[in-house]
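Q: Could you fold this chain for me?
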Amino acid sequence: MSGAGAALLAVAAVVGLGGCGAPGPRADDAVSAARAFESALGTLRFGQACALLAPQTRQELAAGEECARALAKERLPAAAGEASGGTAQVYGRQAMVRVGGDTLFLSQFDRGWKVTAAGCTARPELPYDCRVKGG
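A: Sure. Below is the predicted structure, expressed as structure tokens.
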């Protein structure tokens, strides 16, 4: 195979593989879910924010208490006024999203992205410390 033929084959393989994950739309969807969560927090709609939590996160947060009440007690940093924009890093069915001053982690479920951890702060050489998280 000539050098040009090999280069064309390599480009075709990369283009073919690049479309499989569709990282752009998936990242946009993760950011949208995170913004919806932040907006609900910022407008004190804790029940709506709870609906955006992953099931295990909601269960661990509530621990026998109503989710909305438990979430209100956490006093998470909400980016309500700045709940536009945001950046996402997507890894398979997991994403880390930064919106306003908050870092959230999300998982992709059959019905869309759900927040698995929120109120997260980075720690040098350690995992993020998150105020709300599921096991």
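A (continued): The helical segments are 3-21, 23-42, 46-51, 55-62, 67-74.
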